[in-house]
Each structure stands twice: as C-alpha cells, then as structure tokens.
Amino acid sequence: MGYGKYLVFRILNALLVLVIATLIMSALFVKVAREDNKSKLFEELRSWDQTEGKKIKQSLGEEEYWRQRAIEEQNLRKKYNLDKSFWGQVIEKTKRSLMWDFGQSTVSIGGTNNVRDIVFMYLPRSIVLFTTATIITMILGIYLGVRAANMPGSVFDRSLSIFALLTYSLPTWWTGMMFILIFAYKLGWFPLQSNFLPTDTILDKIHKLALPVLTFVFVAFGGWAWTTRNIMIGTLQEDFIMAARAKGLPERKVIYGHALRAAAPPIVTMVIFSLLGSLGGAIISEQVFSYPGMGMLYWMALNQGETNIVIGLTYFSVVLYLSGVVLADMIYGFLDPRVKVGASAKM
Amino acid sequence: MRWVDFKESLSEFANEFKREKTGMLGLILLILLVVVAAAAPIITEPNFPDKWRDPQYWEAYPQTVPPTWYNMFTSKDLVPQQVYTVDSPNVHVDNQKRSMTIEVQYNLSDDYYYGPKGILIKGFNVTVPPGSPFQPKISVYLERPDGRTVPLVEKKPLSSGMSIAIGRDGNIKKATYIWLYKEVTGKTISPDDVPVEVVLIRDMVRPLFAVVDPSAYSSKNATGLVDEIISNPQTLHGTYTLKVTITKPFRTDVKVDNLHVTFLGRVYGSMGTDYQGRDLWAAIIWGSRVSLVIGITVSLLSTIIGIVYGVTSAYLGGNADEVLMRINELFSSIPSLPILILIGATMGHIPLSMIVLLLVVFGWMGIARISRSMALQIKEQTYVEAARALGAGTGRIIFKHMLPQLLPYAFAVIALNVPIAVISEASLSFLGLGDPTSVTWGQILHDAEVQSAATKGYWWWVLPPGLGIAVVGLTFVLIGTALDRILNPRLRRL
C-alpha cells in the first residue's frame, strides 16, 4: 500500500474515533447538565407554586391553577432545554461540536459569550507558558541525553540519571508550590502570583512567567534526557554506527548525523505529543500559580457547570490528541518506511 | 512454559536483581514504606482518620506552628507545648467550701523568644442541682513577673465541658486590649471601643507576655505605644502565675480532677500542625497507607488489563486488531482529569475503590499499545505457529504461550506505573475530590493550597506530603529501572 493511501486510511480512522469520542463526551456532559437543569426547574416551579400559584389557587380555583401550572412548567422546560429529547440533544451537540460551534456560555468572559472565542482567547496564554516551557525542556533534554549517551557510566551520566529518576516521581504542582515558597516567598525573586494585569509591561510578564516556566522545565527535562539517553545508547550499539566510525567519520557527525537520525522516530513522537499537549494547559499547576490559561478555564467551567465551555475544551483536546496520532504516524512512515500497521499492512 | 522453567528463570532473575545496587535500595525503601504504613496506628495513634475530621479533638493543639526541631536552626527559640494537670508540681488547687482557687506557675525562661501561642484551660466538671438558680462563676487572671495582673475573664458562668481559650476567645482578646490600654494610657475603655481588627486579626497573646514599660519602646505618644506593643512586643521573661478562681454557690459543686491547662507551643511535634492544629506528622504517616495501596492496586490492575488487551489485539490481528486499537485510541484521546473532576463533582465525594476503578479505566492504554507491539514479534515465532498447528485455541495460545513471555516486562511496567498512579490520586485529592474518610497526602496539600500556605511560608505543611509522594515514587522507579536494565541488557553494559 502506498504512503498516500496509508495516510488517508489513518486520517479516516482518526476522524471516526473523533466522532465517537465527541458523541460520548456530549452524552456525558449533556446528561450532567440535564440533571443540573432538572433540579433548577424543580426549584423554580416550587417557588412559583408558593407565590403566583398560591394567588391563582385562591382567586381562580383549583382547575385554573393546574392549567396555569402546566403552562409555567412548559415555559421552564423550554428555558432549561428540557423540552427536547436527551438523544436528540446529544446528537445536535455532537454535530455542532464537530463543526467547531460550541454555542454560548452563560456568563460572559472577557467581553464575549461565544465559547469558541473564549477558548481562542485563553489559548495564547497557554502557548506562552506551556509551549515555551516544553520547547526549552525538549532542547535541554535531548541535548543532555545525547551527551550522556555518548559517555555512558560517567559521573555526568550517572548524576543525570539520578536527577531524572528523582524528578520523575515529583508532582509538577507540588514542585510549583515549593518553588513559590522558596523563590517567591523566601527569596522574593519572583511574584507570588502569575496572573497578568492590564498594566503589565512585557518585562513584568516575563518576570511573572519565569517561575512557572522554571518549574516545568525543572520537573520535565530530566525525564526527556533519560529517555533520549536510553534510545541513543541502543542506537549507538548498532552495526551501522560501528561502520560509520570505521569509515573515519568525525564523532560529531556519527552522533548527530547517523545515530540521532536513526533514533529519531520515538523522539519525534514524544516531541509531537508534548507540543500538542502543551496547548491544553494544566488544570492543577495553573491553579497553583494562579495563571489564567486553558487549565484555569477548564476548572472554572467544570465548577460552574458551563457545559458548553467544557464540551468545547474537551473537544479541543481530543482533536489535539488525534492529530498528534496522525502526525506521528505520518512522520513515522516517512522516517521509517518499514512501518506497517495492523490490517492496513495487508491492503 | 513449564513450571520448572519458570522457577528456574525466576531464581536466575532474583540473582541478577541482587546485583543491581539501585534496585536493592528501592527494595529496602519499599520494605521500609510497607512497615511504616502497616504500623501507622502503633507509630502515631489509632483511628487517626476519624480524629482528623473532628475539629474538637484538635482544640488543645496550636495552629500552623512549625515542628519542634525547627528551634535547632533558628537563633530565636520558640516555646514548645506544655500541658499541666492537677498532679503537676506547679499546679496548686485550693478547694474551699464556697470557692476554689487554682494557681498555675509558668516559667518563661530567657531562652525563648516569644511567649506561648495561647493558653487553654479545660476539664471542669460542674454539678448544679436541677432548678437551682445559682451557677458557679469563673474568673481568670494572669499575674506577671513585673507585678501587674491582667484580668482575662471575670465572673463568667461556668458549665461542664466549657473551656477557656486564651488566644482564640474574642472577649478575652478584648479584655487584654482594655488592660493594655489602661496600663499604657491610664484610661479605661469599654469593650465596645476595642478596634475590630484587634479581635479578628491581631495576636493578643504576645502583649500578655510583653514588657509594657514605655522605655522599652520607641513610640512616644500613648496610642502609638499601644499599637507598638501589639505589633512588635518585647517579651517579658520570668515566672507567670495563671490564677483561676471559681465561686461555688449554694448546693453547686465543681470538680477539677480532669483539669488540663495547656500553654500552646509556638512549635509542635515532629512535623508541626496545620490551620486546625492537626498533627501533620501523624497525617503523613497515615497518608502513606492510601498512597501505597492506591499506587500498587491501580498499577497492577491497569498493567494486567493493558497487557492482556495488547497481546489479544496483536494475536487476533486483522480487523479485530484495528477495532481494538481504535477503542484504545478512543480512551487515550479523552482527557481523563476533567472527566474525573466531573464525576467527582456529581458524586460529591469519590470513595477510594471508585478512585482505583477510575484511574484504571484511564490508565491501561499506553501499556496496551507497547505490549501489542511486543506481542507482534512474539506472534511470528515458530512455537506459536506450532501450538496453532497442534490445534491450541486462541485463549490457550494467548495465556499459555504469549503472556508469559511478557511477564518480566510486566513487572518493570508495574513498578514504573506506581508513581504515575500515586501522583494521579494525589492530584484528585489536591482538587478536593478525594475520599473524605481517609487521610491522604493530596488532601493535606489541598488544605495547604486553600489556606495559601505556600505564599505564607508554611514550609512544614507543604514540604512533607510532597516528599512522601516523591519517596514512594522514587522507590518504585528505582525498582522499575533496575528491572528494566536486567531485561534490556543493552542499557546495562555500563
């Protein structure tokens, strides 16, 4: 099967998964929202009973009361979207989400109610923080990992490994809390909170971002370095490396030209998933730093029952993941033509 | 694979593992952790989770104070907790027919920088006959080394189970302010004139144990002096006497056999206390239980599911494989934390078993993908073909011939996944969605975050739970990487 056909097959597969995932998400969130709305409707109907209903009952009699009550209930059902069937609503929501139309939020954020606009308003903030941090982490991690693989067993290699193992078991948000305590509270080098004010200059913003970025890089680069090191050590023992060295190629060229290229596929996969994942923000770490990114928006929307925002953000992260899968497959197929996947191999 | 072969390879494996220094270190740490977790009721106190949620139980503990050993690192030593009962040599009870006087001597030596954080008097047992209009009344005075006496409580009706909390009771704070104002300015003010911030925010225990002589302070005018004594007092060292007098009217009686007078420390225990005065040391020890149990269970279950799923998918191949892999992708694409938050929010609180279930549901996909790719290689081997030719069924081939090949890999994965599970559970607890019936490290950090402990510098509250998580994680990472090195000899040559 040709590369193009393989690619189309993969994309179609990803789209199928996207549709099913969106359907499940919509069903789940719509269910929760309906439960929520049902109790709100019940509450409102009861308060109607005690005010308007009571008056009608006394002045116009029982029959009229029930008629009025039915009308009121009908109106409330419409108001809370309960007049449509559950599945109809779910399919409607799925269709709209797939078209990137997430509807309106109940509260206005940053002057708009359109969920898509809100998501795209928060997205750059996550990019500024997390994508920057991820890029620094990757560059540092891959560089150090290659260096360590080059001199395995050395003091540098060992200390890097120990550092990686230590940071692997640290929760990022806890490290953030500790960094705030040490660098912001004790030493006073950084502000305690990282939320931007309208009056902030570029320098202020960099100053506020420094501590969160430092935290993420600190926690993540050890793991990157360690993984790169392990992949590289495996590759450096291959015969073609020995052949390259025997040819008399300079060591730099052997490592960066031959070995790193052969070790690229898994590293590229990691790069893709980390970069795309960084767009989604981090729910807990953003709380620790009071940073208003995608994670903070997610948390706020979940807590305040903003179903439309939650569906929008969830859809966004599903799309990110699936495009990561497709991208990784594409690059894999490109870098390593031997790759054949499941049934598609037989086509 | 026969049992004898299995046993042999296992003992060979054990021998190899013994040679891995880091692996052995991990194993020792693991044993230590298990011992600590199992012995938590003995090391600290039994039924701790029940006490944890009962604010009453922590009444006699100082709030947000650092651990005792903190004194070793500061030049300004802080007083430790002191509890006195009727039997203590410095407590004198003078019990008359109609009145009772209790005197507690408290020596604030020059070594300590500040006085105690508060004083708590409790353990009165009052008998009043039914219908009696009379009630015992209590007055509390603090006699200071400079000869002055502070009236803290005057003629307050006393009932059983009542406690006098100097440092927390707003009326006592007012009384202290009134006394201080009178000492400094000579004027008497009414309780209504006391500034609200004094009652709500200020530490009014420090002025009790402070020098009130104007020469010790820089402020020249009287009101400035009051403020300075409150905000920046000079400690007065010496012997204080806490004097409690109780009047016992006709036919009433007061017993003080169970009396406890606690001078709350400015340091406490091995790990300090949190905002409710709860002992963090015991909480850390008890938290290790949840962490270990959840970490190991989640990792074990998700690895088993992942490996069986991956191997099955690889063995079946063709369309079944595609479908299984699409389902796998579906699960990985759904962001797990928001779903968990949503479930937690609708259920109120998630019990531990539910947390395990949810973390497993969202934790098996990566393992399934890797074991599938490993199984694809095993599948091509001749013995699998031979088994199929002999007529072995799918289940037999998968469970008897292919899974055992992945078993060593499974051990490494289980170990390496424990830290991830531990961090996930801590994250849920940190968001306030954990199981409220148990004490977990995540919950301690949740409270710390809510009370903004990090930005107030309460290091003893933030540091230990995270270190706990890190130690559990490190233990399993050490074991896991050692296993990995044995199984991937390429990484080992070094």
Descriptive account of the structure:
The complex is a heterodimer of chains A (347) and B (494). A two-stranded antiparallel ribbon of chain A has the order 1-2. Chain A has 347 residues and is mostly helical. The termini of chain A are close together. Mean pLDDT of chain A is 84; it is low at 341-347. In chain A, helix 4 crosses helix 7. Chain A has helices at residues 3-60, 62-79, 86-98, 115-150, 155-168, 172-186, 202-236, 239-246, 251-262, 264-279, 283-288, 294-303, 307-335; strands spanning 104-109, 112-114. Chain A has 2 domains: 3-114, no CATH class; 117-305, Orthogonal Bundle (MetI-like fold). By secondary structure, chain B is of the alpha+beta class. Chain B has 2 domains: 3-55 and 279-487, MetI-like (MetI-like fold); 68-264, no CATH class. Chain B has 17 helices and 11 strands. In chain B, the strands form 3 sheets. A 5-stranded antiparallel β-sheet of chain B has the order 2-3-9-6-7. In chain B, strands 1-11-4-8 form a 4-stranded antiparallel β-sheet, with no helix packed on it. In chain B, strands 5-10 form a two-stranded antiparallel ribbon. In chain B, a hairpin with a 3-residue loop joins strand 2 (91-95) and strand 3 (99-108). In chain B, helix 8 (280-316) packs antiparallel against helix 9 (318-333). Chain B is elongated. Chain B starts with a helix and ends in a 7-residue tail after the last helix. At the A-B interface, helix 1, helix 5, helix 6, helix 7 and helix 11 of A face helix 9, helix 10, helix 14, helix 15 and helix 16 of B. Chain A: It is a multi-pass membrane protein. Chain A: The chain crosses the membrane at residues 6-30, 126-146, 166-188, 209-226, 267-289, 310-335. Chain A: This is Peptide ABC transporter permease. Chain A: It is found in: Cell membrane. Chain A: Residues 123-332 form the ABC transmembrane type-1 domain. Chain B: It is a multi-pass membrane protein.
